[in-house]
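Re: [ENG-882] Designed sequences occasionally contain unexpected residues at chain ends

Forwarding the minimal case from QA. Structure tokens:
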């Protein structure tokens, strides 16, 4: 976990935690804190010196216990009141009684002390929910489907195959797959090791080296509405392996999902600004085109990019319009959802790559893309070639 103590370095925030809970959180690290000149009280009758504690937390170093780092990072991530309801749900599922006077940060501390994995798993879900770039794969057989109830509950065989793959890539074993069901999608978080790293570090006044294996979490989504798989991973080989192994273990078919063109940007050239119409999509207030990338082709592979706050308003000012001769390889939209102050950036690349989050709001964006023809229909996809072993680079 990153060393992010900006919030806990504030004494006033530390004071918002119930003293008994804060003492319970600090107790396992008493020796470290006392070495820094801070005395952990034996009980709540003694006052906590939050100013001194904040000073220690503001300057973490290599001696700071990793468990304390992870605890404070996880708790800080859920200290805002907007997280109270989801923390309450976690507490009720864990069998914890929550009083009417419980604060958000107190509840986060209680949950962490009860079972640190509860907050850490929820944090992983949040971080992965922010992933933006996904590769899309459609069903090889349009007549087949994705039945959530028919998926195997035991993911151990899948994890074993992933271990063999990551070990062959010198990234270690012990991978883990976590399933999270939603109303319109099933999300699988794939936790695995990365290539080992060795970095210079300081041990007090001595220069030394730290050797470790970083961890990464990839995301595999099954879209139950549009019947497709979406993958967020860092390399093309990983994309290929996920497509194959998830097809094998979830559907008994390595090629249950195949690579095929999903997105096209031709509607911009055919319909112009009318391609941005969103009046028929409830929940979307406006859509603007902010960037296009042309591929002119030719021997020198000429590309051209135009950016503006609103391209359809800006291009006429320079006596230009949207070009119809080159291929539009990428487009960036600003989509304003109802009830939100700022628009969301949505990046679409011709092929099968999209850049926007997932969840209920993303379903609105997907609906708009399909309504305006930016998503190739199943009929057109059947006429296009499929490539089971390839992924968009």
């Amino acid at each position: 976990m990153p060393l992010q103590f900006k919030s806990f370095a504030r004494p006033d925030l530390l004071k918002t935690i119930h003293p008994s809970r804060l003492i319970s959180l600090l107790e396992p690290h008493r020796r470290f804190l006392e070495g820094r000149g801070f005395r952990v009280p034996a009980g709540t009758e003694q006052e906590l010196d939050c100013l001194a504690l904040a000073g220690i937390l503001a300057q973490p170093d290599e001696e700071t216990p990793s468990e304390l780092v992870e605890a404070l990072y996880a708790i800080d991530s859920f200290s805002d009141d907007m997280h109270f309801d989801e923390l309450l749900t976690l507490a009720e599922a864990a069998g914890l009684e929550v009083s009417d006077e419980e604060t958000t940060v107190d509840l986060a501390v209680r949950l962490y002390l009860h079972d640190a994995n509860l907050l850490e798993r929820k944090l992983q879900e949040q971080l992965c929910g922010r992933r933006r770039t996904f590769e899309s794969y459609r069903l090889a057989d349009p007549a087949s489907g994705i039945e959530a109830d028919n998926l195997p509950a035991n993911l151990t065989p899948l994890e074993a195959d992933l271990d063999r793959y990551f070990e062959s890539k010198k990234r270690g074993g012990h991978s883990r797959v976590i399933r999270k069901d939603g109303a319109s999608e099933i999300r699988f978080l794939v936790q695995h090791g990365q290539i080992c790293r060795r970095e210079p570090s300081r041990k007090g006044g001595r220069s030394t080296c730290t050797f470790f294996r970083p961890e990464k979490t990839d995301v595999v989504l099954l879209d139950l509405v549009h019947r497709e798989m979406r993958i967020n991973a860092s390399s093309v080989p990983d994309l290929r392996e996920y497509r194959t192994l998830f097809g094998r273990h979830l559907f008994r078919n390595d090629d249950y999902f195949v690579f095929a063109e999903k997105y096209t940007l031709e509607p911009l050239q055919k319909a112009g600004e009318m391609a941005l119409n969103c009046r028929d999509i409830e929940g979307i207030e406006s859509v603007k085109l902010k960037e296009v990338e042309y591929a002119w082709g030719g021997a020198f592979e000429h590309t051209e990019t135009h950016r503006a706050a609103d391209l359809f308003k800006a291009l006429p000012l320079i006596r230009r319009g949207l070009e119809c001769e080159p291929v539009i390889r990428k487009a960036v939209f600003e989509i304003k959802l109802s009830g939100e102050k700022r628009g969301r950036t949505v990046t679409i690349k011709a092929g099968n790559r999209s850049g926007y989050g997932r969840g209920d709001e993303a379903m609105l964006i997907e609906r708009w893309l399909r309504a305006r023809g930016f998503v190739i229909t199943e009929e057109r996809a059947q006429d296009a070639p499929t490539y089971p072993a390839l992924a968009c680079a």
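QA comment: On inspection the terminal residues look reasonable. Confidence is low (pLDDT under 50) at residues 1-5, 381-393. Proposing we downgrade this to a documentation issue.
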